[in-house]
Amino acid sequence: MTPGRDTLTADLQPHGMPPGDVLPPDRQPVIIAARRTAVRRANGALKELRAHQLLAPVLVNLLADTHLSAEEVTDVVIGNAVGGGGNVARLALLEAGLPVGVPGLTVDRQCGSGLDAIVLAARLVAAGGNPVYLAGGVESISTAPLRANRNDDGEPDFFARAQFVPHSFGDPDMGVAAENVAARFTVSRERQDASALRSHQRALAAAKAGFFAGEITTLETSAGPISADDGPRPGLSAAVLKRFPPAFVPGGTVTAGNSCFDADAASAVVVTSLQRARELGATDGLLVLATDTAGVDPGLLGIGAAVAAERLLQARGLSAASVDLVEFNEAFASQTLACLDQLGIDPDRVNLDGGALALGHAYGASGAVLVTRLLAQARRAGNPGSLALALISIAGGMGTAALLRYELLAGDHKAH
Questions:
Q1: pLDDT-based confidence at 1, cuts 50/70/90?
Q2: Which of 101, 116, 248, 295 has fewest C-beta within 10 Å?
Q3: What is d(CA 155, CA 28) in angstroms, rounded to the nearest whole number?
Q4: How large is the C-alpha radius of gyration of the chain?
Q5: Cα 403 from Cα 243, distance rounded (Å)
Q6: What is the pTM of this model?
């Protein structure tokens, strides 16, 4: 694999600055608030809400959480993968009641869109000016438009998913690519099933403990308010998982049980400079230390996150063992385990409250959900200076990683 490079590390590390340092306060990006909706199965409880209607209440909650006036928002940067176009960021911010003077930008890096929207906002903060961004992602798979190419006779030729890469690369479906990764990196069916079970058990335990309550924005629907995830399965067991047949390749190891399900959700964060965060009275946050996006073989797209993370950590002179919190988007157990194996990260340390195998994968929103979960976990642990890593592999053969650090922002106004 010969990966490309799209990185924030150099931007956040001026010449001569040691890896542990940060940018000047007016240019150091920091995430001071994060919200998400419940993640619900596609064509389920949220099927009546379009993408902008999922996202707008999240934006409203973020303003309230940070005591920001809508006029203070510089821009709204939102990831989306299967929507109908028309700039859902702009549509959602106006739906949320932000003034017409606030612009919006929609990002499409498929599964990575939500995380890459946050990365873009961080880069814009690093450029200077003490801006304030609302950034994240949204996906309403339930209301995604029907898509079609135009045949020579003008008639529509409908397709289920967009083309990710030229056909000369094979353009494999996600499940087939997950099987490719399982085979190439020797990830057994037993490990995949165990990973799925762990994800469900952790998500159920986290929900019972109330760990999700503070981050979820309630959505109003005709059937009533929606404020809880519906994916984690209390009755799931190793025996049940063992009964699932291969879903994508005859004789394969990837099943519906150790793969994620499609979901509807929105998630967003407030990204601003360290200086502006303190002016706003923020007491803590996640400093964005470095990011990296890599390109890899589209046939092994699930390994993209590992390539991006490995480069990112090496550039900062860090080992995976030095990272305290890790959130990986579990689209498939096979690619999750392969990436963690490559990075030398014990899967038991990852997705402490469960991941997409239990909660579901809302494409464009999933990367932002990772960051939302990391902020909640960092606050719960309460360890200033702890490092966090968000990882997502992306359709078409890519991966994005973001290195964050939890800090208390009040007091002497010095980062750890």
A1: very low
A2: 101
A3: 52
A4: 20
A5: 38
A6: 0.94
